[in-house]
Amino acid sequence: MLIRYKKAFEKIAMGLLSFMPSEKDLKKLQQTMKQYETDENWQLFLWKEEDIVGLIGVQKEEGAMEIHHISVNPSHRHEGIGKAMVKHLKDMYSELDVKPNEETASFFERCEGEMNE
C-alpha cells in the first residue's frame, strides 16, 4: 500500500533513498529530504506491507508528475514492489501524466513494458 511520507518515517525514508546512486552522499541525501519536507510540489510516498520496504518520490508540475526517486529495500527486490508503486501512483493521479526523470527512466520504461504485456 502506498502511504504519504510523515516526519516519523524520516530514518526509514533516508535509508531507502540512500540506495539511489545519486543519494550516496549524506549532504545530498539531507538536501533531498529537506526538499520533500518543505516544497509542497515534491512528494514522497512509502510502500508499506508489514514493514516499509519501498519509496517513490515525485515532483508535481503543470499537468504532470515526474518521478525523481524510486527505491526498494534490497531484500525485497524482484518482488514487483517498484512496479506496484508506479502503478498505484498512476492510479492515484490518473489526471496527471506520470513520467520519469533521467535517473528513473530505465526502470520506469521496464515497468511500462511489463504493465502493457
Automatic annotation (TrEMBL):
Keywords: Acyltransferase, Transferase. This is GNAT family N-acetyltransferase. InterPro entries: Acyl_CoA_acyltransferase (IPR016181), GNAT_dom (IPR000182). One of its GO terms (molecular function) is acyltransferase activity, transferring groups other than amino-acyl groups. PROSITE patterns: GNAT (PS51186). The keyword Acyltransferase applies. Residues 3-117 form the N-acetyltransferase domain. Gene3D superfamilies: 3.40.630.30.
